[in-house]
Specification:
The chain is an alpha/beta fold. Helix content is 36%, strand content 18%. It is built from six helices and five strands, in the order βαβααβαβαβα. The chain has a five-stranded parallel beta sheet with strand order 2-1-3-4-5, sandwiched between helices. β3, α4 and β4 form a beta-alpha-beta unit. It starts with 11 loop residues before the first strand and ends in a 5-residue tail after the last helix. The relative contact order is 0.18.
């Protein structure tokens, strides 16, 4: 049995990680659109963890050594929120055929927070729509014992896909978002229910 009791009927707690920290970033437009979809669901609650607003330390300590000064305070803004999540959605652009360093840093600072939890991806960019970032994230998340789902939402030439109000111009994107969230919900419930019966072994 697990160390803590889990209410398997409660809505899934979804942590939305916003990976871009670049000035003038497009990430808020995509994140707001995704958040609107999450708000419509009774089976999910969302916590947006924006790495531009909750910056993490970048200097990892040597194995077995204490954290550098100030690191505990920075981690306290993020780590408990990741630990509380039942599932994750990464909102990521593509930088130089991969994902942002800020997102890799957030992954590397944590370990058990990812264990046995599903991860979905919403990506955006130019011609590739950020899909190369997603392709690189999948093996990284497998290494920290997370389970990435197949369905994704990707915005190719993202800046032309939204109107001035932040709504998508092509309704197919909304359909894709529902499919992604439905699949994330299935995996989220399946893995949470399993961990309520048997502790996850990394």
């Amino acid at each position: 049995m697990t160390d803590t009791m889990t209410d398997t009927t409660a809505p899934l707690r979804i942590a939305v990680l916003v990976g871009s920290t670049r000035e003038g970033r497009f990430a808020p437009v995509v994140t707001n659109w995704l958040s609107a979809h999450l708000a419509q669901r009774e089976d999910m609650t969302a916590d947006v963890v924006d790495l531009a607003e909750t910056q993490l330390p970048t200097a990892l300590p040597a194995f077995g050594q204490d954290l550098p000064p100030g690191s505990k305070e920075l981690l306290a803004e993020v780590s408990p929120r990741l630990a509380a999540a039942d599932a994750f959605i990464f909102v990521t652009p593509e930088y130089n055929h991969s994902f942002p360093a800020s997102l890799k840093n957030a992954i590397d600072w944590h370990n058990e927070q990812w264990h046995g939890k599903p991860v979905a991806f919403v990506s955006y960019g130019g011609l590739s729509g950020g899909l190369r970032a997603v392709a690189h994230l999948r093996p990284v998340m497998a290494e920290v014992n997370a389970m990435t789902i197949r369905n994704t939402v990707s915005f190719h030439d993202a800046w032309s896909r939204f109107d001035e109000s932040g709504a998508v111009k092509d309704p197919a994107a909304d359909t894709a978002a529902k499919a992604l969230l439905d699949q994330l919900a299935w995996w989220g419930h399946a893995l949470r229910d399993a961990k309520a019966v048997r502790s996850y072994v990394a």
